[in-house]
Amino acid sequence: MKAKTQSFPGQIIHFLPANVLGQVSRHPLGVGLHVKCLGWYPKAHRHRIERSRGLDEYILIFCTKGKGWTEIDGRRLIVTPGEVLFIPANKPHAYGADDDDPWSIHWAHFAGTAAASYASLLPVHEYVLSIPSAHAKEIARMFRESYRLASTGLTERTVLLASHTLRYVLGLLFFQTGRTLGGASRAIAHDLTKSIEFMRGNVARSLTLQELSRHAGLSPTRYSAIFREQTGSSPVDHHIRLRMQAACHYLDTTALSVKEVAAKLGYDDPYYFSRIFQKILGCSPLAYRRSVKG
Questions:
Q1: Residue 244, CB-side half-sphere exposure with 13 Å CA sphere
Q2: How many Cβ atoms are within 10 Å of 1's Cβ, its own excluded?
Q3: pLDDT of residue 4
Q4: What is the pLDDT of residue 190?
Q5: pLDDT digits over 199-221, tens only?
Q6: How many other C-beta atoms can be found within 10 angstroms of the C-beta atom of residue 290?
Q7: 270-279 tens-digit pLDDT
Q8: Which pLDDT does position 135 carry in this prediction?
Q9: How are the residues of the chain apportioned to helix, strand and coil, as percentages rounded to the nearest 5?
Q10: Which domains does the chain have, with CATH numbers?
Q11: DSSP E strand boundaries for the chain
Q12: CA distance 22 to 24
């Protein structure tokens, strides 16, 4: 542990000893990405950090309560609950808590050969990203698990586990919420969880774009744009893929004929169903059934 000049009641801080950091950074499973330090600052009154030259590592800050701010690229941005501040390496920056409503934050510093690849997924000139509530809860849970792991002793094993936990957090941030390169900014972030659940609950019939957008409470144009930003496919195509996943389940677990499987999924024409299956899975339904799996 290293002493901090700022202290907040209830805080958690874990810094890697130099020898453990050296071991983890050279380990085949840590060279790609490894945690250097992480922690929790509840109601961090007067928290302020300024680095005119940046750091040779990456910073992730997740705000759960209150407000904070960052100054980066000559702009001042506000960070509110459910938002993540992601600062790339060697990027001059400053950040801190709001004077009247100081933020509570989970934070981590990390490095590794894959870290820059995650940073490259940031939308252009965006450093503050909104998180859907379901993923925000999971991210907070993963941070708490990292603290638990670190509290058992900062060994190579526990740090590698914590680093894999951070990879999962980054996966939720950039892939589950659709923030791929050039992807959704905080202005158009939208939680598609309920929309996809609606698709999954209706695999036995086709769904139109109008029906899907109406269920999501958005216009067809806006819904399509957000869905494609966050998943890489159109809403209707995504639903078709879910129907083909259901077809695979029937082919794997039942003796239903291809015609019967097609009917269960709302396809009146089994030949059309087979063509769709072939297009998505790369083989016919019968070839899929005969293939060895597991």
A1: 21
A2: 9
A3: 42
A4: 65
A5: 999 999 999 999 999 998 999 99
A6: 10
A7: 999 999 999 9
A8: 87
A9: 45, 20, 40
A10: 12-176 (2.60.120.280), 193-290 (1.10.10.60)
A11: 12-15, 34-41, 48-51, 58-65, 68-72, 75-79, 83-87, 93-97, 104-111, 128-130
A12: 6
